[in-house]
Amino acid sequence: MRNLIQAMLLAGMVLLSGCVEEVVTMDQPAPSLAAVALDGESVAWGDYANTVKYLVFWSSSCGACMDAMPVLEALAIENPDTLIIIAINIDTDLDSLAELVKQTKLTFPVLQDQLGITQERYRVIGTPTAFVIDKEGIVRDAFQGMMSHRALRQFIRSTINKYS
């Protein structure tokens, strides 16, 4: 058993050694997503083409994150053709996350980053952390920390106007 684990780790390291490190940089293409949808399906930026993307990293234990979810949901509903909210959860319990999304009735994509790869690519050190990605997939803005509901609405509306 131990040899199998060692062999798997070695194979993983060999595979990863050929990977190019992706790091978020303003005014450059957004690093790829290594998070998955709640149904386990992988996702890519191409799944959200031709719209402004508000990418937010969050945790269910983050009060500010949970407080912002209804505002983000309303903004997603108000702007279906110009904005996609993509919420990447950094918690490790997928079952609890699925239940939370069901209870809060979130309709925008909620992704799971159990391995922390996407967090690392985006240099997330706390939640909430958000990025604005334009229609062409270029990172245009970043914000860390809590915003009032009013400030969040204004920020996202100005983002839509600026990058649509």
TrEMBL record:
Cellular location(s): Cell envelope
Matching InterPro entries: Redoxin, Thioredoxin-like_sf, Thioredoxin_domain, Thioredoxin_ResA/DsbE_sf
Cellular component per GO, a single term: cell envelope
Protein name: Thioredoxin domain-containing protein
Presence of the UniProt keyword Disulfide bond in the record: yes
Upper taxonomic lineage: Bacteria, Pseudomonadati, Pseudomonadota, Gammaproteobacteria, Alteromonadales
Keyword Electron transport tagged: no
Pfam families, A to Z: Redoxin
One Gene Ontology biological process: cytochrome complex assembly
Predominant place of localization: other
Any GO MF annotation of the entry: oxidoreductase activity
Occurrences of domain Thioredoxin (ranges): 24-161
Keywords: Cytochrome c-type biogenesis, Disulfide bond, Redox-active center
Annotated TM spans: none
